[in-house]
Amino acid sequence: MAERRQLEFFLLRYVPDAVKGEFVNFGLVAVENGPNGAEFIDVRFTKDHSRILCLDPQADLDVLLKLQKELQEEIGQTKDRAVLLKRMEDSFSSLIQVSEVMPALTKETAAVEIGMVATMFLEVPRVRRMREPAGRLKILETMRDEFEKAGVLPLLNVVPAEPYTKAGDPFEFDFGYKTGTELKLFQAVSMRAGVDSAVLLAARYPTIAERMGQLTGTAPMLTALVEEQLDKTRSEVAFAWEMMEESRIIVLRANDMGRIAEVARKELRV
Questions:
Q1: pLDDT of residue 268
Q2: What are 198-230's pLDDT values in tens digits?
Q3: Alpha-carbon distance 241 to 202, whole Å?
Q4: Are residues 106 and 155 in the same domain?
Q5: Residue 235 belongs to what domain range?
């Protein structure tokens, strides 16, 4: 049986306006956890800056290209994870942000896995995707309808992450309720047009859940609801799905909502 490699990825994001928080992924840094600890092994950058220019027509691409060259040289000289992360934090202006870590276990070679993740987050699709404004909203509507049919919607609450992270955190779990020692959370996650939201949820949830459990004295249990017809054979979907499960998130399809709502009805004794 092939041994799984333990990799971690960090996205480099161009953020022209810190207030709006809009960003474009333009770089990917890869780390491998091995017997000698965590070492930086590769860095990839987008070859198409059209999305950056679309977000910020005044973007100084020369500065970004210089940064890319410096990082590529630094990767070859500094393998220590902590040292290089500290250097990036000290050197980057407010225009550049480093994402939260995205862990991955893979049977593929490091080069193959890095290539797949780089394609997923850095490349502009060759075929234009049809807009699906109903993606997450459609799942959310299904969740709301089923909870309402079960008569439990008024008993559910939106659960903000802010008390368990930092002031100003805008993230919220769509629905939640407490039953016994468990705090059940539910989140609509659309992956049909892109997996960024699923990957971010997987990266953030373990830290939120740990702090939430400490402060509330409960055991948080998060269920992510995805599209009913989602193609799990797509590599990026499989990657994000596995990341969520590794973060102890239960992943179900939207057509499971009837059963979920019925369980909620029984637990809330409606």
A1: 92
A2: 999 999 999 999 999 999 999 999 999 999 999
A3: 9
A4: no
A5: 135-267
Task: Tell me the C-alpha distance between 267 and 261, whole Å.
Answer: 10
Nearest CA-CA partner of 104 in 233, 213, 202: 202
The Cα 175–Cα 258 span in angstroms is 15
* Rounded distance between C-alpha atoms, residue 145 and residue 147, angstroms: 6
Residue 50 has, within 13 A of its CA and on its CB side, a CA count of 5
Exposure class string for 169-200: b at 16+ Cβ within 10 A, else e: eeeebbbbbeeeeebbbbbbbbbbbbbbbbbb
Q: Is the pTM of this model over 0.70?
A: no
Q: Looking at 122, 143, 164, which one is the last position of a domain?
A: 122
Side chain identity, residue 103: P
Query: Which of the two residues, 51 and 92, has the higher pLDDT score?
Result: 51
Largest CA distance in the chain: 63
Opening angle at CA 211, ends 205 and 215, nearest 5: 140
| pLDDT over threshold 70, residue 130 | no
Q: How many domains does the chain have?
A: 2
% of the chain surpassing 90 pLDDT: 44
Are the C-beta atoms of 190 and 197 separated by less than 8 Å?
yes
- CB burial class (10 A; 0-12, 13-18, 19+) of residue 225? buried
For residues 64 and 46, give the distance between their C-alpha atoms in angstroms, rounded to a whole number: 11
